[in-house]
Design a protein that fits this description.
single chain, alpha/beta, Rossmann fold
Length: 245
């Protein structure tokens, strides 16, 4: 498997989506020789799916990669398109809409087979990272649709909170992000949550997990009954791949 799970799409100073992880993306694409990339844009709500495809194509052009990005929403046979793709990209947006659409179209199994069995490279950011978890219960998004579905791709055996923000807002008396994650752990005691802040990503290559950052921000690991633990780039976090939910 060759999986990049980005916290978000852009950081300050970036003009292109995923640009902060450009070295990792270039290395992945060159190693796998992927040319035909399929973008899954179903999470996008406030702009068109075609516009998102164009933005992502601009990124690959900017990075000097000879890849063609096509939108899965344009496919007459989405399952076949996933089966024939050299690489799978999953845009950020609303995780609930994305996950339900994948289930409705019968794409969970084909994506898992492509990524886990056939070694097709996967790049997701924000919602595209959330669906890499066993479930989408640690997304920050509102369930804006009815009939929402929780189980997802289960590419990694732990939960992720993208866009993780360790902050308290003056005058705001609602729960902080840390408190929301602690609530999750009170109900789901055996499921650790990995908070990855803006400008960071996880890479899973042949079962080996590593953490990377474009801005020196650490990963924050939450486990029930324990104080959160910080990990930086280069720290050993392989034990998370051995976790069983």
């Amino acid at each position: 498997m060759d999986i990049l799970l980005l916290s978000n799409g852009k950081i300050a100073g970036n003009n292109h989506v995923m640009e902060f992880a450009s070295e990792a993306i270039i290395e992945q694409i060159q190693r796998t020789k992927a040319k035909n990339l399929v973008l899954i844009p179903y999470a996008v709500i406030r702009s068109s799916h075609d516009d998102r495809v164009a933005l992502v194509q601009q990124t690959f052009d900017h990075l000097g990669l000879d890849c063609k990005v096509t939108g899965l929403h344009r496919s007459e046979d989405p399952v076949k398109t996933i089966q024939e793709a050299d690489g799978i990209l999953v845009s950020g947006g609303n995780t609930w809409v994305l996950n339900k659409t994948l289930h409705d179209l019968g794409l969970i199994g084909p994506i898992r087979k492509a990524v886990l069995d056939n070694g097709v490279p996967y790049i997701g950011w924000s919602a595209g990272t959330n669906i890499g978890c066993p479930t989408i219960r640690t997304t920050n998004d509102m369930p804006i649709i009815t009939g929402a579905i929780l189980p997802s791709l289960n590419l990694v055996p732990f939960q992720i909170n993208p866009h993780y923000l360790e902050a308290s807002v003056e005058g705001h008396f609602g729960e902080t992000r840390d408190e929301r994650i602690q609530e999750f752990l009170e109900v789901n005691k055996h499921e650790p949550v990995v908070g990855i802040p803006e400008g960071t990503w996880l890479h899973i290559l042949d079962g080996k997990l590593s953490y990377h950052t474009a801005n020196e921000k650490p990963l924050k690991l939450f486990s029930h009954g324990k104080e959160p633990v910080y990990y930086g780039a280069g720290d050993d976090i392989q034990f998370l791949m051995e976790h069983s939910c």
